[in-house]
Amino acid sequence: MRPSKRAADEMRKVTLERGVVRYAEGSCMVTFGETRVLCAATVEEKGPPWLRGTGKGWVTAEYAMLPRATHERNRREVTSGKPSGRTQEIQRLVGRSLRAVVDLTAIGERQIVVDCDVLQADGGTRTASITGAWVALHDALKWMEGRSMLKGSNPLKDHVAAISCGIVAGNPVLDLDYIEDSGAQTDANFVITGGGGLVEVQGTAEGAPFSEEELLALLKLAKGGVSKLVALQKAAVA
After folding, report:
1. What is the tens place of the pLDDT at every residue in 166-225?
2. Under 8 Å CB-to-CB from 164, ≥6 apart: which residues?
3. Which pLDDT score is estimated for 78?
4. CATH number, domain containing residue 73
């Protein structure tokens, strides 16, 4: 039995609330159980320098965790002068995940930045960030469409969402909370599109290696979880 009493393939309660930031072109408050992440998308008229003259735009992300998002206060990274390695890894992951489903030519030489701020952390902050960031990006693109800023058809080619899986007490389980994540024998994150394409797979063993069969079991759980997340995204933006 899992500490949360959930079944092996049961996710925490997930909610997606749109339009929670007044000034952002798109925003979403996403919750995975007790994990809460605020995602806000900003449309910038100027793209990155290396794309100047190409006609293509860019989608990127920034990630941060508030000092009291965890049990003990964490020092704000701005006071140390640079983001941690973990922060850089996660924000690059979120950016890659979003770009996988966007036609960058359709947005012109502009940049969309999605800020993901963790208000409360209980495991799965990166997967929640990706799932909520898609909703914020969707609304930012709709904002651009309403102002005739897009070239051609809708640049959003598909949904993308992410979920964690792991092997806990010898059993593959879906959507780890902090208690499970901190003691998992294997911890994995899957980023998957609505069409079932794999964008990124991150898997790490703590101690004993995991087998190919266990990896496939985790992938099966992840696909089921992401299909539910995509259904929630569709309902949120309907």
Report:
1. 999 999 999 999 999 999 999 999 999 999 999 999 999 998 899 999 999 999 999 999
2. 123, 124, 127, 174, 175, 176, 181, 187, 188, 189, 190
3. 80
4. 3.30.230.70
Question: Is residue 75 marked as binding?
Answer: no
Closest CA to 38 of 3, 62, 57, 6: 62
Q: Which of 107, 128, 99 is nearest to 25 (CA)?
A: 107
Range of the domain at 45: 14-237
How is residue 109 written in tokens? 């030489």
Residue 8 lies in a domain: no
Inside any domain, residue 2: no
Taking only the tens place, the pLDDT of each residue in 47-87 is 999 999 999 999 999 999 999 998 989 888 888 778 889 89
Please indicate if the annotation marks 96 as binding a ligand. Answer: no
Contact 64/117 with Cβ under 8 angstroms? yes
Q: Binding site annotation covers 147? A: no
What 3-state DSSP class applies to 132? helix
For 195-208, write each residue's pLDDT tens digit: 999 999 999 999 88
Work out the angle between the directed axes of helices 212-237 and 125-146 (0-180°, nearest 10).
Answer: 40
Q: H or E stretch including 119?
A: strand 111-120
Q: Examine residue 7 and state whether it is found in any structural domain, yes or no.
A: no
In a domain, 71, yes or no: yes
Domain count, the chain: 1
183 is annotated as contributing to ligand binding? no
DSSP helix/strand/coil, 76: coil
**What is the distance between the alpha carbons of residues 13 and 229, in angstroms, rounded to a whole number?**
11
